[in-house]
Amino acid sequence: MSVPAGEPVGDVVTGEAVVLGLRAASFASRMLAAVLDALLVGLVLAAALWGASALLSQTDEAASTAVLSAITVLCLVGIPVAVETATRGRTVGKLVLGVRVVRDDGGPVRFRHSLARGLAGLFELWGTFGSPAILCALVTARGKRFGDLLAGTYVVRERTAARHVPLPPMPPELAGWARTADIGRLPDASVVAARQFLARRSSLNPASRTALGLSLADALSARVSPPPPAGTDPERFLTAVLAERRDRELVRLERRQARTAELQRSIGRG
User: Fold this and answer.
1) Residue 99 is inside which H or E element, if any?
2) Cα separation of 177 and 165, whole Å?
3) Residue 264's pLDDT band (boundaries 50, 70, 90)?
4) C-alpha–C-alpha distance, residues 176 and 235, integer Å
5) Could you tell me if 209 and 196 are in contact, meaning their C-beta atoms sit under 8 angstroms apart?
6) Left if phi > 0, otherwise alpha if psi is -120 to 50, otherwise beta: which for 161?
7) Which pLDDT score is estimated for 61?
8) How sure is the predictor about 205, in pLDDT bands with cuts at 50, 70 and 90?
9) Which pLDDT value is given to residue 118?
């Protein structure tokens, strides 16, 4: 059993019909969440435009148009992006419907993902009344709209998603190899499937566990160089690769936060 790099996570199934991965939200739940969010944003926009119009009644037409246009963009793009970023993929509508936005690899969205979705939504949702988004969601495997395709995200059913289970510790015998290995760009589907497999392997029967572990290790080994020491157990190989990937991401995040803090201090001193 092999795991193609581009295959949706929801299609990775064991011999026991156990789906490994987050389940994409249904079209109906996405639509209802979008309608709720649109109603809320529309109310905020209407109130903001009404208040601004009253304040700008004595201002020339060009200036009023510029201010009202800025308010419109702020409400239609800024508010959804800010809320989605702050809540890590949830909006009021998504919270009510029990869905959330995640990256293609199953991780939480960041500002750049929400910004891409928000900018695309200005045209595919508001500018065309959602027609392109509906058509795109109907023909894509995970019900993605154009904003999701651009951002590399999709919407999952949060209430049915499996609980997060921490990765096992780095296998001591592979720690030295993992530190120097070139992990490269790992396929999102294979990474999520490997994480789910490691979290649920104890519930699989031995034959399915062995076969799936081998197939997932094969899918990742093509992207890792040099290969692990001869005779490495596939499950320990998966653990080492994912643990090292997590540690490297944490280091990058800490460095980015340190640079941000230093920049803020420099601005403060200035």
Assistant:
1) strand 99-103
2) 25
3) confident
4) 17
5) no
6) beta
7) 82
8) confident
9) 93
The 10s digit of each residue's pLDDT in 20-77 is 456 788 888 899 999 999 999 999 999 999 988 888 877 788 888 888 899 999 999 9
CB 80 within 8 A of CB 37: yes
Greatest distance between any 2 Cα atoms in the chain: 80
* Angstrom distance (rounded) from CA 227 to CA 94: 42
Residue 20 is encoded by which pair of tokens? Answer: 């490994």
Residues 6 or more apart whose Cβ sits within 8 Å of residue 261: none
Q: Say if residue 229 is preceded by a cis peptide, omega within 30 of 0.
A: no
pLDDT bin (cut points 50, 70, 90) of residue 165 is: low
**Nearest residue to 44 (alpha-carbon basis) of 88, 92, 96:** 92
- Unique residue bearing structure tokens 């951002």: 151
Residue 129, sorted as left (phi over 0), alpha (psi -120 to 50) or beta, turns out to be left
Q: How far apart are CA 185 and CA 43, in angstroms?
A: 43
d(CA 203, CA 183): 28
The owner of tokens 């019900």 is 143
To the nearest 10°, report the CA torsion of 11, 14, 17, 23.
Answer: -40
Distance, CA of 211 to CA of 269 (rounded, Å): 59
Residue whose entry in the numeric block shows the structure tokens 């596939």 = 234
User: Token pair of 212, please?
Assistant: 């799936």
pLDDT at 53: 86
State CA 193 to chain mean position distance.
Answer: 15
3-state secondary structure of 109: coil
